[in-house]
C-alpha cells in the first residue's frame, strides 16, 4: 500500500516539475527582454530633460533576420530636452555599454543609439516599432563624433537593440 502511494507521489512530482520547467523556460525570452529594457528605462535622464515615451518590443528574428532561434529586443525612450545635441551625446557616451540581454553569454554590452529629429526614420513592423537614420542604418553613440552636433536637441530618441539565442520548439 505504501509502495503504491510513493510511486504515485513520485510520478506526480516528476510531472509537476516538468510542467514548471517548461513554463519557466518558455517565458525566458520575455523575462530577458524585460530585464534588458529596464537597463535603459532605469538609467537616469540628463538634466533639463523629460521623458515623453518609453517602449519595448521583442520577438523572434524581426530586426535584421537570422535563421531561427534568435530573439530580438528593442527598447527606446523619447525625450524632450533643452540640452544641445553635443551635451546629449556626451551624456550617453558616459553611460558606456548597457548589459547584453543574456547574462549567460560573455558578449560585450550594447551601445545606446541616439536619433535626433533631423536624422531619423520610424520603422513600423507587425512586431513593433524602432528607429534608424534617414539612410536606414543604426546610429550608435560612438559614431556620432563624426557628425555635426551643433544646435538644440529638442526631441531625442535613445534606443538599445540586441538579441539573444533562445530555445525554440517549432
Brief characterization of the structure:
The protein has helices at residues 2-26, 28-41, 85-94, and strands at residues 49-60, 70-84, 113-116, 121-125, 128-132, 152-165. The chain is α+β, with helices and mostly antiparallel strands and 170 residues long. Strands 1-2-6-3 form a 4-stranded antiparallel sheet. The chain has a two-stranded antiparallel ribbon with strand order 4-5.
What does this structure look like?
This protein has 170 residues and is of the alpha+beta class. The protein has one domain. It contains 3 helices and 6 strands. It has helices at 2-26, 28-41, 85-94, and strands at residues 49-60, 70-84, 113-116, 121-125, 128-132, 152-165. A 4-stranded antiparallel β-sheet has the order 1-2-6-3. Strands 4-5 form a two-stranded antiparallel ribbon. The longest helix is centred in the N-terminal third of the chain and has 25 residues, at 2-26. It is elongated, with a radius of gyration of 21 Å. The mean pLDDT is 79.
Compute the average pLDDT: 79
Please tell me the total number of domains: 1
- Which regions have little confidence, pLDDT < 50, spanning 5+ residues? none
Give the topology string: H per helix, E per strand: HHEEHEEEE
Strand content: 25-35%
Q: Which strand order do you get reading across the main beta sheet? A: 1-2-6-3
Provide the structure class. alpha+beta
User: Helix fraction?
Assistant: 25-40%
Shape: elongated
Number of strands: 6
SS field, number of helical segments: 3
Quick one: biggest sheet? Answer: 4 strands, antiparallel
Radius of gyration: 21 Å
The N- and C-terminal alpha carbons lie at a distance of 43 Å
Amino acid at each position: 500500500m505504501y509502495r503504491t502511494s510513493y510511486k504515485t507521489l513520485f510520478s506526480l512530482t516528476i510531472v509537476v516539475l516538468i510542467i514548471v520547467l517548461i513554463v519557466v523556460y518558455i517565458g525566458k525570452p520575455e523575462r530577458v527582454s524585460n530585464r534588458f529594457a529596464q537597463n535603459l528605462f532605469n538609467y537616469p535622464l540628463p538634466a533639463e530633460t523629460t521623458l515623453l515615451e518609453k517602449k519595448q518590443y521583442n520577438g523572434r528574428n524581426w530586426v535584421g533576420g537570422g535563421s531561427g532561434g534568435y530573439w530580438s529586443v528593442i527598447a527606446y525612450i523619447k525625450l524632450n530636452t533643452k540640452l544641445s545635441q553635443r551635451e546629449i551625446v556626451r551624456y550617453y557616451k558616459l553611460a558606456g555599454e548597457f548589459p547584453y540581454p543574456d547574462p549567460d553569454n560573455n558578449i560585450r554590452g550594447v551601445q545606446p543609439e541616439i536619433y535626433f529629429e533631423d536624422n531619423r526614420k520610424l520603422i513600423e513592423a507587425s512586431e513593433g516599432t524602432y528607429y534608424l537614420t534617414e539612410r536606414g542604418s543604426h546610429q550608435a553613440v560612438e559614431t556620432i563624433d563624426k557628425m555635426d552636433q551643433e544646435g538644440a536637441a529638442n526631441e531625442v530618441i535613445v534606443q538599445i537593440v540586441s538579441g539573444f539565442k533562445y530555445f525554440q520548439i517549432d
